[in-house]
Design brief:
heterodimer, A: 182 residues, mainly alpha, 2 domains, flat, B: mainly alpha, 9 helices, 0% strand
């Protein structure tokens, strides 16, 4: 039987050794979860990944919760999740403290100004990739444009945009299926 | 009480950010309008640091935002609040996972959610661009043409498949060097 300690430490290791989360985590996850601990096989891991992408929250964390829960119930799920987020807490706090100390340094300020420009480019690229993957047809494009315009020109909360997209998707599916029956 | 506010805001972020770490961005951007925890400029720094340190980006960004709001206790509260809703949902879903994932209605909902999430992130990125490249302030836009040019070049380079695989960390190291050399 899997020990609680193993769940925490395995996901701690995954958390501290992956940069970027999401898909970048997959190689580390495979090594710990499949090869080392045999908690899942290849197919199961891909299923867990798919489900983690479709449920709210950070993909890496969802995967940790799922595996922890399957192995040792609710406490297992919580411990695996805590393992996953512990490295972030330490590392980010450390960096944030250091950054505050050196915030007056002109070289750091120039460097950060350059980095911010790159972040804009990287984020633009992320949006393009997500839009390409997420927009499957005309209706998808319509949802994308509507949501973008509403976000830009009105004060509709983001939550409402996301729920609205879900409702449109759900209704369009019902309408299509209604058409097929006749 | 700031910790209760942090709990409420980050519980909500955890509940509604579907599709990975970057889905938290629109919500973190929204917080800059509601509280004075960090500025939009600082948010851009936070993204850079979250992407170039170990750990999931969404968790890193939330830890950072919590730290900015209320120091180390704030970082702990925001990070833990962020995972509460996902833990509950995963535990419920895990029981009937395959049925859930293959259910046509569930698939249909996500078919509509994904473009909306992409749009929300797009809107948040536009906010970053306004601050970083267009230097928006009370008197309007003051476009920084050098920064716009550099961003465009970086974006075009990112369309090259081989360069796309390069870890974001290296892009940011490049950005830092350019920033120091050009005294941006």
């Amino acid at each position: 039987m899997t020990k609680y300690k193993d769940l925490y430490s395995a996901f701690f290791k995954i958390g501290i050794l992956t940069f970027g989360g999401g898909l970048a985590m997959l190689p580390m996850l495979r090594r710990e979860v499949i090869e080392h601990h045999h908690w899942l096989d290849e197919d199961e891991l891909l299923d867990v990944y798919a489900i983690s992408q479709c449920t709210p929250g950070v993909i890496a964390v969802n995967t940790a919760t799922y595996i922890g829960f399957k192995e040792r119930g609710i406490l297992g799920g919580i411990l695996a999740t805590l393992g996953m987020i512990t490295p972030s807490l330490f590392i980010i706090t450390l960096v944030a403290v250091m950054l505050r100390q050196f915030m007056e340094n002109p070289i750091l300020l120039h460097a950060l100004a350059g980095v911010r420009i790159i972040v804009c480019a990287l984020m633009l690229n992320t949006v393009f990739t997500m839009a390409k993957k997420g927009i499957k047809d005309g209706l998808g494009l319509f949802i994308f444009l509507m949501a973008f315009l509403l976000a830009t020109f009105s004060s509709v909360p983001i939550v409402a945009l996301i729920i609205g997209g879900g409702i449109i998707g759900f209704l369009s599916n019902k309408l299509r299926n209604g058409g097929k029956k006749s | 009480m700031i910790y209760l506010t942090l709990f409420y805001e980050f519980f909500k972020i955890g509940l509604f950010s579907v599709g990975g770490g970057m889905a938290t961005l629109p919500f973190l951007m929204d917080l800059t309008n509601k509280y004075d925890w960090y500025t939009k400029n600082e948010l851009t720094n936070m993204i850079a640091i979250s992407e170039s340190t170990p750990g999931p980006v969404g968790i890193n960004m939330s830890t950072y935002a919590g730290y900015q709001a209320a120091g180390i206790p704030g970082a702990i509260v925001s990070t833990c609040s962020m995972v509460v809703a996902p833990i509950i949902i995963i535990i419920i879903v895990a029981e009937f996972m395959e049925k859930f994932y293959n259910n046509p209605s569930v698939q249909a909902v996500f078919y509509g959610v994904r473009p909306a999430v992409a749009a929300a992130i797009g809107f948040a990125v536009w906010g970053l661009i306004e601050i970083t490249l267009l230097a928006m302030n009370d008197t309007g836009y003051h476009p920084d043409w050098l920064a716009i040019g550099l961003c465009l070049i970086a974006f075009l380079l990112l369309q090259i498949k081989k360069l796309q695989k390069l870890h974001p960390l290296w892009w940011m190291v490049g950005g830092a060097i350019i920033g120091i050399v050009l005294k941006l």
